[in-house]
Write a structure and sequence with these properties.
The protein is built from 27 helices and twelve strands. It is an alpha/beta fold and 677 residues long. Helix 8 packs parallel to helix 15. The longest helix is centred in the last third of the chain and has 22 residues.
Length: 677
């Protein structure tokens, strides 16, 4: 069945949001989710009602309740597939780059870039930029794009490597769902970058090769590996037809798979040279699971990176939330999937699944559907994709609305250069609008505890506030350093400004003591029998705190902590300690905990290096936390860097030694309170 309708982006987003819910959805909720006005939704509703009849579905509208899709589940599934496939059909800048790669690889002489730019409807400068992006990708296959000014470009390298690149490009861009539509005879479902290049020979060979493989099943053959071997056959036929031959190919081969190559030659009437037969036998040797390929084939990492990008795109479409353009999610999810490829035993998910379904309805279902589309049905089981949901849930965590960061800018004279730096800071950091400038000699006039960070153009003596030495122009590299510093600050523990009084406030002192007594009583140092995955560890922490009655949802807490780590490293450089902190609606009571790991895990540090970590210090507060709780958590965070002794004790100290550090913070807060009076 061909696509029934060419959907607009607006129609697609509305319908996918409705498909993600079982009940009526208010217009206001739809409007907020798809970033449209309610009036626009109403106008689109009238147009969609007629279109949906083609799918035997009804778009029901009930005043006071909203919109819902009424119809059979198979009709809804057909609509969902149609919407997703229509989104895939829209060419992107990435498709243009792959089209250029394809044209280069099939050019026998030198590709004239001026002529190609006209054919692709882009400027020569755009094509030049695309070539620069191709360089790094081609280099992974030991290929080189040779440029001749005023003439054009051509690809240098081994034919076998060129074919490998082409097969991987097809694997990365051709979703399982679209591929199976194509081999059933529906020509619309080829990748966008193939629609504008001559490839009829390859497409015909793909259908022939697929038909043969489906009639001759092999051991351990799944959807994705059938596709890979089919692509190998199609690429081989296209290259031979274009006059590109393998003169010699001596890579190791298996007699079993040489027989596969011989059988296909006979059945399809395509005689191979010995070199071509051995090459195809090697590709047929890939008739094994995707996970086994990933363990052995480093090039599959590049393919997996593109698939993860497409997975996020599909989950966004199905779930109705824009996860795309989230670099932290993509990076964290890719690392998790690659790590799980090398793990034999799967963690127990029976306790995790109901919590995820409770806190994030329909998310797990959307991820599984997207995984089946991108990787092939049952390539990843529900047990494996449960932990993917934690990464997506982390991206759903809405940041707590916080006060602006307060910065002090210090320059030698405090005049022109400091003003320049102040303006640059405000320009780069919208969250840091409360910026004060000072000369070096005027530093003593400022109460430094009023600031979150100090940026200075001159060296300063050791201060209690995090300090960075920067250029007045604030280079891009320094912008990143400042951003990493801000992300590492316990900003979520900031308190409201307090009015000062000369009278003792016994209620305030009583609240201090009561809070300290409670937090001291509930503090614990817990040893975890951990896996090598951070997701599992954070889930264990969330579960432990939920069992202690300190958080309402361990899943939501672990998702937020995971998000903090994905956005910026939380490990403290030079130590085996990581500081996880945050505020969230799921947190019932402010608390401090330390968790020791039975075996250390590599973790991203605040300076973006990676080092082994064996202890996590966790500082948590509810969104409605009292000022005294926030002040205490901020004091604990600050005491970490107070001295080398403190850092060592936080990293390696016993439970008793950690409690003594917390008591030092408590004493200091009481002394400061009395001093203010």
């Amino acid at each position: 069945m061909d696509m029934k309708h060419e959907w607009s982006a607006r129609e697609r987003s509305i319908l996918l949001h409705l498909l993600a819910t079982e009940t009526s959805t208010p217009l206001a909720e739809i409007a907020q989710a798809v970033n449209l006005s309610e009036r626009t939704i109403q106008r689109e509703r009238q147009l969609l009602e007629g279109i949906l009849r083609e799918f035997e579905l009804e778009l029901a509208w009930q005043r006071g309740h909203g919109l819902s899709l009424i119809g059979r589940s198979d009709a809804k599934q057909q609509l969902r597939e149609d919407l997703i496939l229509s989104a895939e059909a829209i060419p992107t800048a990435e498709d243009r780059i792959f089209e250029l790669a394809w044209r280069l690889l099939f050019e026998k002489d030198t590709l004239k870039l001026q002529a190609v730019a006209k054919q692709m409807h882009v400027s020569p400068s755009t094509l030049t930029q695309d070539l620069e992006k191709l360089d790094r990708w081609f280099d992974e296959y030991h290929l080189e794009v040779e440029r001749k000014k005023g003439v054009g470009a051509r690809v240098l390298g081994l034919e076998a490597e060129k074919r490998k690149l082409m097969i991987n490009a097809l694997l990365a861009h051709w979703d399982t769902l679209a591929f199976y539509r194509f081999v059933r005879g529906e020509d619309d479902y080829i990748p966008a970058f193939l629609k504008t290049v001559p490839c009829d020979t390859m497409l015909e060979a793909l259908r022939d090769g697929y038909d043969y493989l489906k009639e001759h099943p092999y051991e351990r053959m799944d959807d994705r590996t059938i596709m890979r071997v089919t692509f190998a056959y199609g690429v081989q036929q296209a290259r031979l037809d274009a006059g590109f031959f393998l003169e010699m190919y001596t890579k190791g081969r298996s007699d079993d798979y040489l027989k596969v190559a011989l059988d296909m030659e006979t059945a399809l009437g395509t005689p191979f040279s010995m070199a071509e037969r051995v090459w195809f036998a090697e590709e047929a040797n890939r008739l094994r699971s995707l996970k086994e390929q990933m363990k052995e084939d480093e090039e599959e990492r590049w393919v997996m990176q593109i698939r993860v990008h497409k997975l996020i795109h599909h989950v966004s479409l199905i779930h109705g939330f824009a996860f795309t353009d989230d670099a932290a999610l993509e990076k964290g999810l890719l690392a998790h999937i690659l790590s799980s490829m090398n793990t034999q035993a799967l963690p127990d998910t029976d306790t995790v699944r109901p919590h995820i379904d409770r806190d994030y309805p329909n998310l797990r279902s959307a991820i599984q559907q997207a995984a089946d589309i991108v990787f092939g049905t049952n390539t990843f089981t529900e047990e494996e994709t449960v932990f993917w949901a934690m990464h997506f849930a982390a991206a759903l965590v809405k940041p707590v609305r916080r006060r602006e960061y307060r910065a002090l800018v210090v320059c030698s004279a405090g005049l022109g250069s400091s003003k320049m730096l102040v303006n640059r800071v405000k320009q780069e950091f919208p969250e840091m609008q409360d910026v004060v400038n000072s000369s070096l000699f005027g530093l003593e006039q400022h109460r430094l505890d009023d600031y979150d960070v100090i940026l200075s153009t001159v060296p300063l003596p050791p201060l209690s506030v995090p300090t960075l030495i920067v250029n007045p122009l604030l280079t891009n590299e320094e912008v990143q350093r400042v951003r990493h510093l801000l992300l590492s600050l316990p900003q979520s523990f900031q308190t409201k400004e307090k009015s000062h009084s000369t009278m003792l406030d016994f209620n305030e002192l009583g609240a201090l003591v009561e809070t300290f007594e409670r937090m001291d009583r509930q503090f614990d140092l817990v040893t975890l029998d951990n896996s090598d995955r951070l997701e599992d560890i954070l889930l264990d922490i969330g579960t432990h705190l939920e069992e202690r009655g300190l958080v309402e949802s361990g899943i939501q807490l672990s998702a937020q902590l995971l998000r903090r780590h994905e956005v910026a490293g939380l490990g403290i450089p030079g130590t085996k300690l990581a500081l996880f902190h945050g505020r969230h609606t799921s947190i019932e009571r402010a608390s401090v905990f330390a968790f020791d790991l039975n075996r250390s895990i590599p973790l991203l540090m605040m300076d973006q290096s990676t080092e082994p970590v064996s202890r996590l210090l966790v500082l948590l507060a509810s969104e409605e936390a009292e000022d005294v709780e926030l002040q205490f958590l901020s004091a604990v965070s600050g005491s970490l860097i107070e001295s080398e002794r403190h850092m060592n004790l936080y990293s390696n100290g016993s439970k008793k030694e950690l409690r003594l550090l917390l008591h030092e913070c408590m004493k200091k807060m009481i002394q400061d309170t009395l001093h203010e009076k």
